[in-house]
Input
Amino acid sequence: MPLPPASNPNQWLRLLPPVEWPRIADVFTAQGTTLPDPDSAHIIVLERLDTDAFRDIVGFIVIQLVPHLEPVYVKKAFRGTEAFKDLAKAAISLFPPGEQFYAFAPNQNIEQMALSVGLVKLPWSVLRGAGQPPQV
Output
């Protein structure tokens, strides 16, 4: 599916091929993270020609699959036992060292459960969107 045109006619949007991802690696490094896995991510860049006719990246956005622990279920009779911790520790053990994952906590109980197995509450909001049908 082609990308829409940029608002500025002197700029354009394109999918950045993984071989060009090193062009933006310093931004990830400055944020204390690494480039995403090219097998599960895409990067869209907004570019312009600078004064040396070099393709200058004005900005980028990453579309990526990020692992998260959800949903979780424990029978009522086993809530308050070690059942959740056992499940969570088993799931966490499957991630390679350093690989990040997330958990969504729709209420205080779930938040406390996540905190109890070492997850850290982040200082940002989670927002949701939905793809739009193609324009005909």
Remarks:
- Helices lie at 25-30, 83-93, 108-116.
- DSSP finds three helices and three strands in the chain.
- The two ends are 12 Å apart (CA to CA).
